[in-house]
Structure prediction request, 294 residues.
Amino acid sequence: MSAATPHGQTPYYFVPAPSQFPVLTAIAMLLVIFGAGQWVNGHGWGAWVTLAGFLFWAWVLQGWFRQAISESEGGLYGKRIDISFRWSMSWFIFSEVMFFGAFFGALYWTRLHALPNLGSLDNAILWPDFKAVWPSAAPGATGSPAGIVEPFTTMGPWPLPTVNTALLLTSGVTLTIAHHALLANNRGKTILWMWITVLLGATFLCVQGYEYMHAYRDLNLKLSSGAYGSTFFMLTGFHGFHVFVGMLMLLFITIRLMKGHFTPERHFGFEGAAWYWHFVDVVWLGLYIVVYWA
Prediction:
């Protein structure tokens, strides 16, 4: 326990005192879920409850993270805590792999199993006008014989998705340069390349926002555009959210670097954010191939 550790020495294993942050986080999440549930069911006030929940959640998290940073900079985190953090981040990223795997699996199953089965002879009586082609871009001609899906145009790989691919791959390179600069104890160079990485992530989000505007305005491609529209926006939308979260992580790491935190020997906060960002890059490469090209 930390209380039995002599002053100035790192404890064998730091055990934090009882904290109010977990229960406050649970309250914030309850507000978000309750508000969102009321919002989608037509109650306008649900949007304000959802917003209040997110704001309360952000306030709780900043306090929680501030406490963790204070403990780390106070020398309370030793080697065993570092190992614990590494395992925790590894399992968190694994859970994210499974999260995206579910959506990639839904796309795979829809294209290679559900669609051919619906267009088979077994379903010809039920859906005589159905044609098992991907994507279902026009009612009556493809996957919407009942005309419930408005005609739309698919999103190709050029130019916006390819530009975003270049942005993310470049950000992975700049982040690696920053990491090597930190290992060399060149803090100024580290901060410079970290700001470039954050800027590239923000640019990616701006380009994706413009891509969504183009999809809705010019292509009539929406979340309701059949299986293609739903899988397209679920995959790209959740990935964009993860880019936003990763960009915030890198931003706060950069601010901590400017405050003098991290050393070449102790910088798992930096490494954990870098792991997450590289994971986001890899997911995008898979998404770029199977959603925009395939």
Notes: The mean pLDDT is 90. The helical segments are 21-40, 45-73, 79-118, 160-183, 187-217, 226-258, 268-293. The two ends are 55 Å apart (CA to CA). Residues 1-77 form a domain with the Helix Hairpins fold (CATH 1.10.287.70).
